[in-house]
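Example 3.2
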Amino acid sequence: MNSDTLLAQNVKTNDCENSLKELIERHSKLCYNIYQKYIPAMSASGIFPDDALNDKDYIIYKSACSYNPTKKTKFSTWLGNQVRYYCLNKINKNKRYITLEYSALNKIVEKGAPPSQNGEFKDYITNLLSQMSDKRVEKIFHLRYFNEKEAKMTWANIATDLDVSSQTVINLHNKGKRLLKKKLQQGYRSDFL
């Protein structure tokens, strides 16, 4: 047996704190590298990446407790998969949060709109979009990002709902994104930034 396997078994059977510390020391870098790949998706889903990173030691502990060396998998592979599943589960559980693709809006979600203020953020975006002459833009954003009944609607479904082509929906969406970007760059509602 390799040393990771022994350490994991020691954590699992004896709840050994020193073995856990050794596993954390050995595998923290692996966890951080995997987290880095999921940070943009987590931010877009309304998850503060630091919150997920704070769970690293707990994930290593849970991975050690659930590790089964008879499956012929290295502990590092098992841990890497557990971190990936953790990140994906966090993202999926937070789909109700805003998932706007535009980086400036993602910055707002990441830095300035904690879950307790998410309703205020939605009202803010809706208010900006309601100022546009084409009222379909606001409807598109509502269906795409603020739809509480289902996950993010596809362009085709939105097009069917509005009785226009998918390309028209995309063009109107991009028009709305440009307005939001302009307002954000002007420092509009800078308390969110």
